[in-house]
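Format notes (please read before filing issues)

Several people have asked whether sequences and structure tokens are stored in separate files. They are not. Every record keeps both together, in the order shown below: the sequence lines, then the token lines. Line labels are part of the format and must not be stripped during preprocessing.
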Amino acid sequence: MPISAKIPYAARSLSPGSKTSKSLADAVRVQTLGELTYPILCTYVDDIVTVSEQEIIAATLLAVEEAHVLLEPSGSLDLAAALMYASQLEDGKPAVVIASGGNTTLEALYQMYGKV
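Then the structure lines:
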């Protein structure tokens, strides 16, 4: 199955002239998928979901408030997705969220609190 059918969001980033928008999750904002990344996506990824900037902020702040873990916004993307799509996860099956990155500042955190 071609990547465009399996992963339309990734396929869009491969199309000529595509542009990325500004995001808090700047570590994952790329112009195009790399030569190494593309075949891995084709082989191992079944789907890609998207989350809004507000959902990224909510997940980042939830990690701070509930788990006392400071994540950079890119590091909270999968937490945001798990929270957003929780109803679509299989009942009784574990969900794994990789919380990563502390490459943020207190100023950025304060700005996020101002946006909720």
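For reference, the curators noted about this record: The chain is about 45% helix and 0% strand. Residues 53-114 form one domain.
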